[in-house]
Amino acid sequence: MYPFFPRSRRLQVGREPQLDFLRLLGDNSQPMTEHMVEVILPDGKSRHIASDRPVRETLGDVLPPGCLAVRIAGRLGALDAPAPTDGPLDFIDADSREALVVLRRTAAQALSLAVHRLFDEVETANLKVSDDGFWCEFDLPHTIKSSDLPILGEEMERIIAEDLPLSTQILNAQNAEVELRRQRSRFRIERLREEGGDIFPFVSMAEIFEPARGPHLDSTSQIPAFAILEVSGAYWRDDERRDMLQRIWATAFFSTEELQDYLRRREEARERDHRKLGRKMDLFRFLPEAPGTPFWLPGGVALLNELKNLVREHLNRTGHQEIQTPTVLPQDLWQKSGHLDHYQDRMFHLEGSEATHCLKPMNCPGAILLYRSALRSYRDLPIRLSEFGHVHRNERSGVLSGLFRVRSFTQDDGHSFVLPEGLETEIQSFLHTVGTIYGILGFEEFGCELSTRPPRSIGTEASWDEAEAALIRAIKSSGRSFEIVRGAGAFYGPKIDLHLRDCLGRTWQCGTVQIDFSMPERFDLTYVDPAGRHRRPVLIHRALLGSFERFLGILLENTRGDLPVWLAPEQVRIVPVSETRFGQAARNLADFLTRHGIRARTQKRPQRIGYEVRQAQEARIPYLLVVGETEIEEDSVSVRIRGHEQPITMPLQEFCSFLRQQIDSRSWRLEP
C-alpha cells in the first residue's frame, strides 16, 4: 500500500501556481479575431458583445451584485470566460437553480487540489457535479480509505482559507494536449480527442490546471460549507473493461444549515433505501445471472399491476387507445428515427441471418409505424396511442442503481398525433391527468420546467413560437407555476418536464410531454385536411410516471414502504393463535377475503404469534388479523393496524366492507 503523507509532504508538480496563457499557447498561437455574439438581456434588450473577451468585461455594467455565472441559451458560462453563443441571457446568483452547480464545481476543484497536495503520483481522471453533490475520480497508487477523508477535509479547509483565485484560460487543441501530456493525464486526453474542436477552456487554481466543464466561483474562499462523504471504487467511464479508479463523493452548500439538513436527510434516505425495502417486503430481487434487470416476485407484480391499472383507468377516460408494439425491430428503423445516432452504445444489437435488429430502447417508432399504416383524415385526429412498453438499454454496470437505473424496464409511454391547433387542449388534458394521478399517489405538488428552442434545432421559427406559446398557455390554465429554461429544449421541439418532490426534499423528474416536429418529417406522416391536401400532424410524446420501476423506487422511499391498502402487495396477514386449533379457520378466512378481491394470506409455516406480528410489521402489511376462539365464536376479527399498538375488534362483514371501500376509493387512511 502506498504510504499516506500528511500535509508536510505535499506533491510538487513542477509548475508555477498561476500559468501564463500566452506561454501555454506557444509561439505559433495567433491573436484571436474579434467576433460578436448577440445576447438578449433579462429586460429584453439586445446587446452585441465580443466573443473573445470575458463576460465580466463585456457585460460588467449590467452584472448584478452577487452574480456567480451566466446562462446563455440554456448553457452555463463563467464570468471570466467568453459568451458561449447567441441567445437569451440570465444572471445566476446564489438563489438561482444552477447556483449549486457553480459552487460544487468549484468545490470539486478544491478537492482535486487537496488530493494532489496530500498524495504523490496523482492523476485526476474526472470531476462531475451530481444532483446532490459532486464526485472526483483519481488514479493513484495509494488506496484512499474512509480514515483518510477527515484529513482530506482539513486540507480542503486550508485551501478555502488560502482564498485561491480560479481563472479560465483557453488553449488551442494542440497545446491542450501538450499540457495534458505534461500532466500525464491520459484519461483527459482521451476525452479531449473524442470531443474534437479547435479550442478548449481550462481552469487554473494554484498548482492545478484542469479542463473546465462549466462555470466556477472566483475564489475558494467563496465555498461556505462542504462535506466529504465517502470513497469507492469506480471503473473509468463506468465500464468494467476499463481502469479501476478511486471515486470520492462530496457535497457543498451555501450555508452550514443547508449542509446539516442534507446530511440528516441523507442518513434518513439510507434507512428508506428501496433495495432494502424490496427485500423486506418480498417485492423483487437482483440476481447475478441478469445484472441490472429486476426479478419480480408476486408481491412486486401485484404492486406494478395496481400502478398500471391506475394509469390505464385515467388514459381510457381521456380517449387513449392501448397498443403493444414489437420488442425487436430492424436497425434501419432506428437509424431513420435518429435513435441509433444517440443511443447506439446503449442499444442491444441482435445479429441474425437477415438484417441486424435491435431490442427497442424506446417505443416511439412502433407507434409511428401504426399511425402510418393507414390513411388518416383530419376528422380522425387527435389519435392518442398509449403503451406499457417494455424497453431495454445496455447501461454500463457502473451506473446501475437498484430500480433507479436498470437495463430492462416498462414505460407508460404515449404518442398523440394532433392538429397544430389542438396542441394546447392536448397539453391541458395531460397536465390535468398527471396532476390527478400524482395526487392519488401522495404527491400533491410537482414543479414544471418549460424548455425552449435550442440554438440548433429543426422546424420553422413560427412553429416553435406556436408550440411554446401553447405550452405556456396550458400550464397557466392549469394554475401551476413553472420555470422557463431557455434554449434547453430538444432539437425536435419544446417540452415540459415534471419534477416531484419527496418527503426528504429530493426532486425527481418523472413525467414529461414533448412536442416533436422531427418524427413526422422523417417518417412522412400525414393526414388529409378538409381541402383534400396532405398535411403534417404534430407528434406529442408523453409519459405520466415514466419508468414504472424507477417510479416504484421513488414511491417506496417516499413512503418508507408504508403503502396504502389499495397499493399494498399483501393487504391482510392472518395469524392463528394456535395452528393446531385455529389454523384451518385462519386459512378459511384468507380464502373468504380473497374471494372478495382482497390480497390476504396466512403463513404456511406457522410461528409463534409474537414472531408473526414482527414479520408482518417488517413487511409493512397494513392489517394483521389474529384468529382465536373468541373471534370464531363471535364471527369477528381482531385487527392490528400498521403503525398502531392496540388492536381493535370488528365484525367480519363490517371489516370486509370497510376494507373494500378503502381499496375502491384508493384511500390512504387505515383507521376505520
Q: What are the salient characteristics of this protein?
A:
8-stranded mixed sheet, Ubiquitin-like (UB roll), single chain, BirA Bifunctional Protein, domain 2, alpha+beta, 5 domains, 5-stranded mixed sheet, Threonyl-tRNA Synthetase, Chain A, domain 2, 672 residues
Topology:
Blueprint: H1 21-25, E1 36-40, E2 46-50, H2 55-58, E3 69-72, E4 75-77, E5 87-92, H3 99-118, E6 123-129, E7 134-139, H4 149-161, E8 167-172, H5 173-182, H6 186-195, E9 199-205, E10 208-211, E11 225-235, E12 244-253, H7 256-271, H8 274-280, E13 284-285, E14 295-296, H9 298-317, E15 321-322, E16 328-330, H10 331-337, H11 339-343, E17 349-350, E18 357-359, H12 364-372, E19 383-392, E20 408-418, H13 423-440, E21 446-451, H14 461-478, E22 482-485, E23 495-501, E24 507-516, H15 518-522, E25 527-528, E26 534-535, E27 538-547, H16 548-559, E28 572-576, H17 579-595, E29 600-602, H18 609-618, E30 623-627, H19 629-634, E31 636-641, E32 648-651, H20 652-664
Parallel strand pairs: 1-5, 15-19, 21-22, 28-29, 28-30
Antiparallel strand pairs: 1-2, 3-4, 3-5, 6-7, 7-12, 8-9, 9-10, 11-12, 13-14, 16-18, 17-18, 19-20, 20-27, 21-23, 23-24, 24-27, 25-26, 30-31, 31-32
